[in-house]
Amino acid sequence: MKLTTRILRQSSLALLLFLCACEKPKQRVSSEPQKAPAPEVSAPEVAAPVATPAPSVTQPTPPAPEGKASEDEGNPTSSPDPEPELSVAMEGKKIIVSGALRSKIQVDRILEALKREFLEHEIENSLVVDYDRMGVGWGNRVADEFLVPFLQQVANAKVTYRESVVTLDGEVKSPGEIRMIAEIAVPVFSGSTTQDLKNNLKVSAPAKP
Predict the structure, then answer these.
(1) Would you state the pLDDT for residue 201?
(2) β-strands 196-199, 165-172: how paired?
(3) Which span out of 7-16, 27-36, 185-194 was modeled with the highest average pLDDT?
(4) pLDDT of 31
(5) Other CB atoms within 10 Å distance of the CB of residue 12
(6) Overall CATH class of domain 85-203
(7) Nearest to 99 by CA among 126, 137, 134, 133
């Protein structure tokens, strides 16, 4: 009986120690106060400063250097020289020559060739020398190589050079002559100023029997 009581006491003591050992952590944990999380405090929004545009400052225009205006006035932009002009037309027994060329030698050569080859015709001349015109190379060869045979072969013949274009007018006997005269005119009037040739030659109607 005493042994049983002793065992019970020992068991009760061991159980009490076990319970005490298990409760200490609970008491320790519960004894520590739990800290509440600090409330989040949002920082007051600060408005960004608005940039004020700087006032525009107009830079003063530097004065033009003296003497520049006088230099510009002294060197005006030169306009290009006017182009040469020539017109030779046969009307019955009259040959009308007009226009303006830069070279006096060329003007004299054209008139001399016409007077020499057309003795029975009157030469009405208003062809002048204009040193402000552009110079041309064809003026040296146009009389003998083209004008004389052209006026001899074509009825109501007229040839003009104006604004860089050669124009042929008149009547011939066959289509072949139209082509042949144009082939002669092209190399005669060739040069830096000539741009085109207009061939208005026509075949004359055959005479009625």
Answers:
(1) 97
(2) parallel
(3) 185-194
(4) 44
(5) 10
(6) alpha beta
(7) 126
